[in-house]
């Protein structure tokens, strides 16, 4: 077993990320789930679970998802999880190979409550300096994708009415841009789930909006299945 999948590595991360003794105990409670997730053949698609940290998964499993409207920027195990829980799920993807695989997986499971939306990025032909931190720039933070624009991808949610979705998961490209487009389409009491918020720029432009329009349900570093490193997921409830 590699160092990053070992108990000492888990303990080290639990210590450095713990904000309190209670937080440490919470992370420690996930030890067995974390170590078991590395078993051969396991991944989020096989387990039909979102690839989020354990605290976020536990929170979502406590929600009433049946007949809810869900939109995903980026699909996978989360798509199967929401479909399995009888939600009406719409997923936008930017990679045709993964969209094809996701479609096959959903069809194989026999889920009829899913809509896949494929929108590839386009070359950016402007001359202005852009930043992935600016929601108006529709730019991925990946250095390999900086020459592309994800505007149509982020705006895919605009084909739906305002206040339509009970839950929106942002776990794909150009996340600040997707968050900006998503907020008007979220119902009151709806949930906005943003993964990997250990990258502060994802939510940096929305601090005032969060204070005024949202209740923070979850904002925590925790272990995540199938992955050695702890990650942070933020879940916001629209007031």
Blueprint of the fold:
Elements lengths: L6 H11 L3 H8 L2 H6 L7 H4 L6 H8 L7 E5 L3 H8 L3 E6 L2 H14 L4 E5 L3 E2 L24 E2 L1 H4 L10 E6 L4 H8 L3 E10 L5 H4 L2 H7 E11 L2 E12 L1
Parallel strand pairs: 1-2, 1-6, 2-3, 6-7
Antiparallel strand pairs: 4-5, 7-9, 8-9
Can you tell me about this structure?
The protein has one domain: 3-Layer(aba) Sandwich (Rossmann fold). A seven-stranded mixed beta sheet has the order 3-2-1-6-7-9-8, sandwiched between helices. It has a two-stranded antiparallel ribbon with strand order 4-5. Strand 8 (214-224) and strand 9 (227-238) form a beta hairpin. The protein has helices spanning 7-17, 21-28, 31-36, 44-47, 54-61, 77-84, 96-109, 151-154, 175-182, 201-204, 207-213; strands spanning 69-73, 88-93, 114-118, 122-123, 148-149, 165-170, 186-195, 214-224, 227-238. The chain is of the alpha/beta class. Helix content is 34%, strand content 25%.
**Count, helices:** 11
Please provide the ordered H/E string of secondary-structure elements. Answer: HHHHHEHEHEEEHEHEHHEE
DSSP summary, beta strand count? 9
Distance between the termini: 46 Å
Count of folded domains: 1
Biggest sheet: strands, sense, closure? Answer: 7 strands, mixed
**Cα-based radius of gyration, to the nearest Å:** 18 Å
Name the beta content range.
15-25%
Structural class: alpha/beta
CATH topology: Rossmann fold
Query: At the fourth CATH level, what is the homologous superfamily?
Result: Vaccinia Virus protein VP39
CATH class wording: Alpha Beta
Q: Which spans have pLDDT < 50 for at least 5 consecutive residues?
A: none
**CATH architectural arrangement:** 3-Layer(aba) Sandwich
Strand order of the largest sheet: 3-2-1-6-7-9-8
Q: How confident is the prediction overall: mean pLDDT?
A: 97
Global outline = globular
Share of helix, binned: 25-40%
């Amino acid at each position: 077993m590699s160092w990053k999948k070992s108990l000492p590595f888990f303990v080290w991360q639990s210590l450095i990320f713990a904000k309190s003794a209670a937080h440490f105990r919470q992370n420690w409670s996930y030890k067995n789930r974390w170590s078991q997730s590395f078993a051969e053949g396991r991944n989020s698609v096989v387990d039909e679970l979102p690839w989020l940290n354990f605290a976020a998964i536990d929170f979502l499993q406590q929600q009433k998802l049946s007949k809810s409207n869900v939109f995903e920027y980026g699909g996978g195990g989360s798509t199967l999880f929401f479909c399995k829980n009888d939600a009406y799920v719409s997923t936008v993807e930017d990679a045709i190979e993964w969209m094809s695989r996701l479609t096959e997986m959903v069809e194989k499971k026999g889920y009829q409550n899913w809509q896949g939306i494929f929108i590839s990025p386009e070359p950016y032909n402007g001359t202005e300096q852009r930043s992935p931190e600016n929601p108006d720039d529709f730019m991925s933070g990946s250095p390999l994708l900086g020459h592309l624009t994800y505007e149509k991808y982020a705006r895919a949610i605009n084909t739906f009415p305002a206040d339509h979705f009970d839950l929106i998961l942002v776990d794909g490209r150009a996340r600040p841009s997707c968050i900006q487009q998503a907020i008007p389409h979220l119902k009151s009491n709806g949930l906005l789930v943003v993964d990997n918020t250990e990258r502060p720029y994802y939510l940096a432009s929305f601090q005032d909006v969060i204070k005024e329009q949202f209740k923070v349900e979850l904002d925590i570093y925790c272990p995540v299945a199938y992955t050695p490193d702890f990650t942070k997921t933020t879940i916001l409830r629209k007031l």
